[in-house]
C-alpha cells in the first residue's frame, strides 16, 4: 500500500515538474522573441535551447498522458533521466551565457526587463529539470527504475557528452586547428570520446548492454580508461600549440576586432577549449574511479558467491 501510494506521488510530482518546465521554457523564449532581444549566434543558441526543451517536454507529457511509454524500443525512464540531465545543463548554460553576453548591453527599458525575466525563467527551468534528476533517486528507492543512467557513472557520461558538445561549438571554425596536425588530433580526440560515450548511452537506452561479449561495467571501464588517455594527450597538445610561441601559438590575448558582443574572439575560443578539455578530463577521471569501483565490487561479490555458495543461496 505504501509502495503504491509512493509511486502515485512520484508520478504526480513528475507531471508537476513537466508542467513547470513547459511554462518556464515557454515564457523564456516568448519574452525574448516578443521584443526581438536576440541577435548573434549566442542569443540564437539560447533561443534554440528554450524552444527545444519546450517541444521535447511537451512531447514527453503527451506520451505519458496517453500511456504510450511501453511502445518505445528503449527504457523510457532511462530516457527521461538522460533528457532531464541534458535539459538542465542546457538551460543552465543559457542562463549564464545569455545575461553575460546581452543584458548589460541593453539600454534600460522594456528590452532589458524582458531579457532579465527570460533569464529568471531559464533559471527556474534549470531547477525544474535538475529536480527531476534528483527525484529519480526516489524512483530507484521505489523500485520503479533500475539501470545505468540512475548511477553516478551514468550521469557523468551525460555530462561528458555535454561538455564535448560545448567544445564542438568553439571549434566549429576550422581555422583554429587545421594549420597544425597536433590540433587536428585534439579535435579527433574530442570526437572519438564523444562517440564512445554516446555509444554507451545508446546501448543502455536500447537495453542492448546485456548483449555484449563482456560485462557492461567492464566495457564501460575500458571506454573510460581509453578516454582518459586520449583527453590527457589533448590537454597537453592543445595549450602547447595554441599558446606557446615556439610551436606557433599566441601566448597573450590581442585586441579583438571580431565584434563587441555578438561573437567570440579567436584567442578566447582557444582558451575556452583548453579549459573545457581540463574540465572534461577531470570528469572522465571521476567516472573512471566510479566505474572501477563498480567492476571491482562486482568481481568481489562473484568471488564470494563462488567460495560460499550455500551462504549466498540462503
Automatic annotation (TrEMBL):
Q: Which InterPro entries match?
A: Marvel, MYADM-like
Q: Does the keyword Transmembrane feature in the UniProt annotation?
A: yes
Which cellular compartments is it found in?
Membrane
Supply the alphabetized keyword list: Membrane, Repeat, Transmembrane, Transmembrane helix
Q: TM spans, by residue?
A: 47-68, 80-104, 116-136, 148-170, 182-206, 218-241, 271-296
Primary location group: membrane
What domain of life is recorded for the organism? Eukaryota
* Domain MARVEL, first and last residues per copy: 9-141, 148-296
Membrane-topology descriptor: Multi-pass membrane protein
Which Pfam families does the record associate with it? Answer: MARVEL
The text of the family note is: Belongs to the MAL family.
Protein name according to UniProt: MARVEL domain-containing protein
Q: Which organism is it from?
A: Ovis ammon polii
